[in-house]
Specification:
heterodimer, A: mainly beta, B: mainly beta, 4-stranded antiparallel beta sheet, 54% strand
């Protein structure tokens, strides 16, 4: 009954490799996000999708490519991994206006995180 | 542009004593504000949120926060700390246009026995 799930939980890989992280939500939300948490615990948004359409794309290298096959899934593919990509990546989802009930608006639900280590 | 500033990177309290985690915000309009908690090696859990209803917001695990427009603050409090409260706490403002979250830098709460 997990609301927002991510796989894998841990990912250790070599520089230059390509890897993907998957995210799924079973809350029926129409907006999903990817955040990056660096070693200092700072969290910053990377991407946001609403009903499979990209709505936020922060200044992220184009080695990062999100893909949303349907509104319940938002995957993150990373090409040519670099040491600086080591971080914890969090997926989140929300139900936003105008369709969301007032009590749920703007509330994001986070997955458990994927800890990526690039060697 | 909206932003939040968490004034303390580390806070230590003794078990059973009050907790105060400070957050100031900057926004050109009435903001939506949140507090999230992250336990070690875990995801983020919503503690409470303010979205222009009552200024005193009660959350889970005995936490509450008060929205003070005159002070542009949204400080998190708890009357009595438990060992299980030891975690990283994030103050967040939601951008009204895109609903993206803008995070503060976090406050690590340590609870001493």
């Amino acid at each position: 009954d997990t609301a927002v799930s991510q796989t894998p939980k841990y990912l250790v890989t070599q520089m230059g490799n390509d890897k993907s992280i998957k995210c799924e939500q079973n809350l029926g939300h129409d907006t999903m996000y990817w955040y990056k948490q660096d070693s200092k615990k700072f969290l910053k948004i990377m991407f946001s999708y609403n009903n499979k359409e990209l709505i936020i794309n922060e200044t992220v290298p184009n080695r990062f490519s999100p893909k949303s096959p349907d509104k319940a899934h938002l995957n993150l593919h990373i090409n040519s991994l670099e040491l600086g990509d080591s971080a914890v990546y969090f997926c989140a989802s929300s139900q936003d206006p105008p369709s969301a009930p007032a009590a749920l608006r703007e509330t994001q639900y986070f997955g458990p995180g994927t800890r990526l280590l690039v060697l | 542009a909206q932003s939040v500033t968490q004034l303390d990177s580390h806070v230590s309290v003794s078990e059973g004593t009050p907790v105060l985690l400070r957050c100031n915000y900057s926004s050109s309009y009435s903001p939506s504000l949140f507090w999230y908690v992250q336990h070690p090696n875990k995801g983020l859990q919503l503690l409470l949120k303010y979205t222009s209803a009552a200024t005193l917001v009660k959350g889970i695990n005995g936490f509450e926060a008060e929205f003070k427009k005159s002070e542009t603050s949204f400080h998190l409090t708890k009357p009595s700390a438990h060992m299980s409260d030891a975690a990283e706490y994030f103050c967040v403002v939601s951008d009204r246009g895109t609903y993206k979250y803008i995070f503060g830098t976090g406050t690590r709460l340590k609870v001493l026995a």
